[in-house]
Design brief:
alpha/beta, Rossmann fold, 9 helices, binds adenosine-5'-triphosphate
């Protein structure tokens, strides 16, 4: 069943057009990789989806609802759980407070998030500012889960982290996929890791979807042309 469809979405930063024709489809329970070289429009697509940037054209339908008329806080309430680039948390609140303030009713609560991230449980009384980069990323993911989203959106969740911590984050994404069937949109630079976890892929080039389909159908020709360095 379709959870999200972006059809021919366009968007501008002032007079500068960043998205031209973005098409992106996510079926319920699927993990979808959004890929493209630097500056091709991945984060902008997420901003348009989460209504943090107005769209100039096209359609965004989430869970049967037209998102274009909704402000970002209302779109979030429909079940968009964003883990933004730069993992924004409240630095002066404790780990536990950061999680509790994000809570909305549903499967995910403080106990379940703590089981998923035992390190957050260990550090629950510490301020978010005192956490390592990897722990802050775990907290950002935990906060998004506490909203009990229909779609979890991870924008460069492993960026700048040490290899072992990256592996921990990928393992958590795999657990979420396997044990909860949560729908996930993931932006990351590691094709290898994405190949191991994503069901489908969308490739952007200069603000336009140039390929979408099953992850295992992504050819070397497409990766060379649009994802190579
Ligand atoms: P990266 O992998 O580097 O994060 P990306 O694929 O997420 O790249 P975007 O950040 O969406 O790319 O950028 C798409 C285009 O929009 C780029 O040309 C970028 O320079 C431009 N852009 C991004 N943010 C802004 C902004 N706040 N104001 C103006 N232009 C912007």
């Amino acid at each position: 069943m379709s959870l999200l469809s972006l059809t021919n979405v366009s968007a501008f930063y002032d007079a500068s057009q960043a998205l031209f024709k973005v098409n992106l489809h996510i079926d319920e329970g699927k993990v979808v990789a959004l890929m493209g070289r630097n500056g091709m429009g991945k984060t902008t697509t997420i901003k348009a989806l989460c209504r943090m940037l107005p769209t100039a054209g096209g359609e965004i339908v989430f869970d049967g609802q037209d998102l274009r008329r909704l402000p970002s806080h209302k779109a979030a309430r429909l079940g968009l759980g964003l883990v933004p680039e730069g993992r924004r948390c409240f630095p002066n609140l404790t780990v536990e407070e950061n999680l509790i303030v994000a809570a909305r009713p549903g499967h995910w609560d403080f106990a379940r998030v703590s089981r998923l991230f035992p390190r957050l449980e260990e550090r629950k009384s510490q301020s978010a500012a005192s956490l390592s980069g990897g722990e802050q990323q775990m907290l950002a993911i935990g906060r998004a889960l506490m909203t009990n989203p229909r779609l979890l959106i991870l924008d460069e969740a492993t960026e700048g982290l040490a290899p072992l911590v990256r592996q921990e984050i990928w393992a958590v994404i795999a657990t979420l996929k396997k044990e909860t069937g949560l729908s996930i949109l993931v932006v990351d630079k590691s094709l290898k890791e994405l190949s191991g976890i994503a069901d489908d892929a969308v490739v952007l080039n200069r603000g336009e979807t140039v390929w979408q389909g099953a992850m295992d159908a992504l050819s070397a020709d497409i990766t060379d042309r649009y994802l190579g360095v």
